[in-house]
């Protein structure tokens, strides 16, 4: 839904107020607008990954796209960047956003995928002294089953799979009118990277007996405050986040 010029002005003012209150020139070299609100996992994680940038929540992806120019006009002396979830954007769209507006994206669909990679799960298992192979197998099977149910429910044709069947992999092929063919195969090794649904965090939370997605976010925040885990955790997530040069 399009936002009015007055609403946009108010949102820009809120972001600029945050910058005025939080920006410290002895620490920060620029500003990073990200998705979410001030309590979201995005802000807390990106503040650790990009300590040289003041991380400011700015709503959703389209909000950042619409507001970043106005924020720049209000802060002409500051370098201001954006960071959005990749979601379903094409490489062409992402390249245009980066080159035109300095808006970067995660390398995986959502921030939830970034904090639910096998690398992160392995770190959590080590911290909790759990069997990684057992946990990752349980999570992968859950993701593949959830993905299969999504495909079954969205296809206009019947797919005969019983509720008891264990899915090993999913493959599909799409032929475009241009003649180009898009092929994709998802298996246990790739499911956590490929599943484009924020509920992936719920599936991981269940494996660790945490209280849903919010419980998982809170657990990740807790780990980010523990020196014995923080370094490895940040190294794992940085692999799936862009390098932002000031």
Describe the structure.
- The protein has 246 residues and is of the alpha/beta class.
- It has helices spanning 5-22, 41-49, 61-74, 91-101, 111-114, 118-128, 132-154, 191-194, 200-207, 212-223, 227-238, and strands at 30-34, 53-57, 80-84, 103-105, 169-175, 181-187.
- Strands 2-1-3-4 form a 4-stranded parallel beta sheet, sandwiched between helices. Strands 5-6 form a two-stranded antiparallel ribbon.
- The longest helix has 23 residues, at 132-154.
- The mean pLDDT is 90.
Describe the structure using short key phrases.
single chain, 246 residues, four-stranded parallel sheet, 11 helices, 51% helix
Quick description:
This protein has 246 residues and is α/β, with parallel strands linked by helices.
What's the structural blueprint in terms of helices and strands?
Blueprint: H1 5-22, E1 30-34, H2 41-49, E2 53-57, H3 61-74, E3 80-84, H4 91-101, E4 103-105, H5 111-114, H6 118-128, H7 132-154, E5 169-175, E6 181-187, H8 191-194, H9 200-207, H10 212-223, H11 227-238
Parallel strand pairs: 1-2, 1-3, 3-4
Antiparallel strand pairs: 5-6
Helix pairs in contact: 1-3, 6-11, 7-9, 9-10
């Amino acid at each position: 839904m399009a936002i009015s010029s007055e609403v946009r002005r108010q949102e820009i003012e809120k972001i600029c107020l945050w910058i005025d209150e939080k920006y410290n020139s002895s620490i920060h070299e620029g500003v990073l607008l990200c998705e979410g609100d001030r309590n979201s996992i995005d802000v807390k994680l990106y503040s650790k990954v990009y300590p040289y940038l003041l991380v400011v929540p700015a709503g959703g992806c389209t909000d950042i796209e619409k507001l970043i120019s106005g924020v720049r006009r209000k802060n002409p002396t500051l370098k201001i960047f954006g960071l959005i979830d990749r979601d379903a954007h094409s490489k062409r769209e992402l390249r245009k956003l980066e080159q035109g507006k300095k808006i970067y994206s995660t390398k995986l669909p959502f921030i939830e995928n970034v904090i639910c990679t096998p690398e992160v799960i392995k770190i959590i298992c080590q911290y909790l002294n759990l069997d990684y192979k057992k946990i990752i197998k349980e999570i992968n099977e859950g993701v593949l089953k959830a993905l299969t149910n999504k495909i079954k429910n969205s296809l206009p044709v019947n797919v005969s799979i019983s509720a008891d069947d264990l899915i090993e992999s999913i493959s599909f092929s799409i032929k475009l009118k241009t003649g180009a063919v898009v092929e994709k195969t998802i298996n246990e090794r790739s499911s956590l990277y490929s599943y484009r649904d924020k509920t992936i965090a719920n599936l991981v939370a269940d494996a660790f007996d945490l209280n849903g997605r919010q419980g998982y976010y809170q657990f990740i925040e807790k780990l980010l405050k523990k020196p014995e885990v923080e370094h490895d955790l940040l190294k794992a997530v940085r692999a799936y986040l862009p390098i932002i040069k000031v």
